[in-house]
C-alpha cells in the first residue's frame, strides 16, 4: 500500500481546533474513575443551533433547495469544489453504532486517513433530531472527514445537504445506497435507492450543485445475489456529478454472507474514468488483501469489520506486516477508547453507561480476533467463526470469549462494576459469520449499511 502522500486539500472554512497530542496510556489495571464532567455531546450551543436549523427548514418553501432556486451562485460554487484525493489513503467505513466518534478517534491514532460519520437519515435531520445531528459530529483529529446521509429523494436529501453546507465543516458528503435493512429499504432508501436510477440522478445533480464539498456514493454490487447491476449505474453516477464511489462487493440480498466479489469490483474499476476514484470494500483484513485490491484497479480500500476486529489493521497495512499484538496492548487500545468515550459522552452516570454500551457493541466484533502468534495452530479467516482457544495468558483468553458476560467483565476493568441488573445483547447481526449460521443471521435484522 503506498504511503499517504501527505497532501491536504485547501479548506474553505476555518480549521477545526488543533489536534491534541495524545497523553501516554496508563496501565490497563488502573481502574480509577474520573470525576464527573459535562458530556461534550450535550453542548447547549449545538442543540440550540439544531433547533434553529429545524425551524428554518419548516419555514422553507417546498423545493427551496432545488438547484434552480439558487440562481447562478450554485454554479460558481460547483466550480470551486475541491477534488477528493484518496490515493494511498485508508478509509474507515461508516459504521452505524460502532463507528462512533471515540472509535474513529482510536482508528485515526492507528493510521486511518479518511473517516465518515454514521449513517444519518435525512428526514430525522430535517426534524431537528439532536441524536441524528450528533451522528455528524467530527473530532479535530479527523482531518479528512465526511458525513453519510440516507434518504429517498432530492427534496429531503437536498434540504439536508443545504443545512450541512451552511452549518457544518465536512470534507465530503456520502449518500448511502447500500444499507440492506428492511426498515431503510422499505422507505426507498439505502440499497433500494440504487434500483431507481432516475431518482438517483435527481438526488446527485441536486446535491452536487448545493454542496461546495465533493459528493460521494456508497453502493453494493446490486440488489439480487445473481444480478449485479453496479456496472450500469457507475458510469451514470460519474456523469451526474459524483466525486468518488465506494463499491461493497456484495448484493443487498447477500447482506454480509459469502465473500465479497473482488473480481466484479475490479471489472467495475476497469470501466471507470480515472478522475472518479473507486473505493473497493469488502473483507479487507490484511496488507496482502490491500495489495490485491489495488492490483485490481481500485483507487483505495475501505475497511469495516477488519477495523472493528483489529483496529490496528491500519498500522499493519501501512507498515506491511502482521502485528502479533499482545492482550495488554489490545487492552490499552480499549483504555484509549474509554478515555475518548468519557470525554465525548461525559463521566457522569449516563456518560459511563453510554461508553460501556458502545464498548460492548465493539467487543461483539473485537473478541473475534485470533492472535497472529496462534494462527499456525488455529488456521482461521476473520470472516469465519474462530475456533475456541486458550490464549497465551488469562487476559488473551478473556478477550477471545464469545460470551457477552465476559465482555461485560472487560468493561468492568475499565469503567468499574456494572449495576446488579445489567444485561447486554449486541445490536448488530453483522457480527455473524460467513458459515451456515449466516442464513439465520440474514433472517434477523442486520446491521445498517
Ligand atoms: C456494524 C456495522 C455497521 C455498518 N454501518 C454502516 C453505515 O452506517 N453506513 C454504510 O454505508 N455502511 C455500513 N456498514 C457496512 C460497511 O460500511 C461495509 O460496507 C461492510 O461491512 C463491508 O465491509 P467489510 O467486509 O470490510 O465489513 C456497516 C457494517 C457493519 C458491520
Explain the layout of strands and helices:
Layout: H1 44-59, H2 73-80, E1 91-92, H3 101-109, E2 115-116, E3 120-121, H4 122-126, H5 130-134, E4 145-150, H6 154-167, E5 172-177, H7 182-185, H8 197-210, E6 215-220, H9 230-240, E7 244-248, H10 262-270, E8 278-281, H11 287-295, E9 300-303, H12 305-309, H13 313-319, H14 327-345, H15 349-366, H16 394-399, H17 404-415, H18 438-443
Parallel strand pairs: 1-9, 2-4, 3-4, 4-5, 5-6, 6-7, 7-8, 8-9
Helix pairs in contact: 3-14, 6-8, 8-9, 14-15, 15-17
Please state the CA-atom Rg, rounded to the nearest Å: 21 Å
The CATH class of the largest domain is identified as Alpha Beta
User: How would a crystallographer describe the biggest sheet?
Assistant: 9 strands, parallel
Q: What is the averaged pLDDT score? A: 83
Q: Kindly estimate the percentage of residues that lie in beta strands according to DSSP.
A: 5-15%
For this structure, what is the CATH homologous superfamily of the largest domain?
Aldolase class I
Query: Got a strand count?
Result: 9
Count of spatially separate domains: 2
Number of H/I helices: 18
Name the helix and strand elements from N-terminus to C-terminus, one letter apiece. Answer: HHEHEEHHEHEHHEHEHEHEHHHHHHH
Ligand names? flavin mononucleotide
CATH fold naming of the largest domain: TIM Barrel
Tell me the CATH architecture of the largest domain: Alpha-Beta Barrel
Structural class: alpha/beta
Distance between the termini: 26 Å
Amino acid at each position: 500500500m503506498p504511503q499517504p502522500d501527505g497532501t491536504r486539500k485547501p479548506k474553505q472554512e476555518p480549521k477545526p481546533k488543533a489536534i491534541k497530542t495524545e497523553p501516554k496510556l496508563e496501565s490497563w489495571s488502573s481502574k480509577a474513575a474520573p470525576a464527573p464532567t459535562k458530556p461534550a455531546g450535550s453542548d447547549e450551543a449545538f442543540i440550540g443551533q439544531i433547533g434553529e436549523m429545524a425551524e428554518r427548514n419548516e419555514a422553507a418553501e417546498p423545493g427551496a433547495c432545488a438547484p434552480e432556486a439558487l440562481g447562478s451562485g450554485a454554479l460558481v460554487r460547483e466550480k470551486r469544489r475541491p477534488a477528493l484525493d484518496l490515493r494511498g489513503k485508508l478509509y474507515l467505513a461508516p459504521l452505524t453504532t460502532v463507528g462512533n466518534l471515540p472509535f474513529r478517534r482510536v482508528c485515526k491514532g492507528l493510521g486511518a486517513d479518511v473517516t465518515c460519520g454514521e449513517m444519518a437519515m435525512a428526514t430525522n435531520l430535517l426534524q431537528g433530531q439532536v441524536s441524528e445531528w450528533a451522528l455528524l459530529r467530527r473530532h479535530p483529529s479527523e482531518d479528512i472527514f465526511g458525513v453519510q446521509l440516507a434518504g429517498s429523494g432530492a427534496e429531503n436529501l437536498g434540504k439536508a445537504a443545504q443545512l450541512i453546507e451552511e452549518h457544518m465543516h465536512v470534507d465530503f458528503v456520502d449518500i448511502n445506497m447500500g444499507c440492506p435493512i428492511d426498515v431503510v429499504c422499505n422507505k426507498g432508501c439505502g440499497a433500494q435507492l440504487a434500483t431507481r436510477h432516475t431518482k438517483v440522478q435527481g438526488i446527485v445533480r441536486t446535491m452536487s450543485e448545493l454542496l461546495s464539498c465533493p459528493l460521494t456514493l456508497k453502493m453494493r454490487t446490486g440488489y439480487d445475489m445473481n444480478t449485479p447491476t453496479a456496472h450500469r449505474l457507475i458510469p451514470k453516477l460519474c456523469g451526474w456529478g459524483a466525486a468518488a464511489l465506494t463499491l461493497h462487493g456484495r448484493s443487498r440480498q447477500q447482506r454480509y454472507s459469502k465473500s465479497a466479489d473482488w473480481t466484479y469490483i475490479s471489472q467495475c474499476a476497469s470501466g471507470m474514468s480515472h478522475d472518479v476514484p473507486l473505493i473497493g470494500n469488502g473483507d479487507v483484513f490484511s496488507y496482502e488483501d490491500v495489495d490485491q485490491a489495488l492490483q485490481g484497479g481500485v483507487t483505495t480500500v475501505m475497511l469495516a469489520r477488519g477495523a472493528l476486529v483489529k483496529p490496528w489493521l491500519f498500522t499493519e497495512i501501512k507498515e506491511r506486516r502482521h502485528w502479533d499484538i499482545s492482550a495488554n496492548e489490545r487492552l490499552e487500545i480499549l483504555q484509549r477508547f474509554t478515555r475518548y468515550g468519557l470525554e465525548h459522552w461525559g463521566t457522569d452516570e449516563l456518560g459511563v453507561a453510554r461508553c460501556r454500551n458502545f464498548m460492548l457493541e465493539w467487543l461483539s466484533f473485537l473478541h473475534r480476533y485470533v492472535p497472529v502468534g496462534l494462527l499456525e495452530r488455529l488456521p482461521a479467516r476473520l470472516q469465519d467463526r474462530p475456533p475456541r482457544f486458550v490464549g497465551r495468558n488469562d487476559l488473551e483468553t478473556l478477550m477471545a470469549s464469545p460470551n457477552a458476560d465476559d465482555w461485560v467483565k472487560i468493561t468492568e476493568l475499565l469503567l468499574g462494576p456494572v449495576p446488579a441488573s445489567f444485561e447486554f445483547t449486541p445490536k448488530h447481526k453483522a457480527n455473524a459469520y460467513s458459515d451456515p449460521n449466516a442464513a439465520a443471521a440474514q433472517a434477523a435484522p442486520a446491521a445498517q449499511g
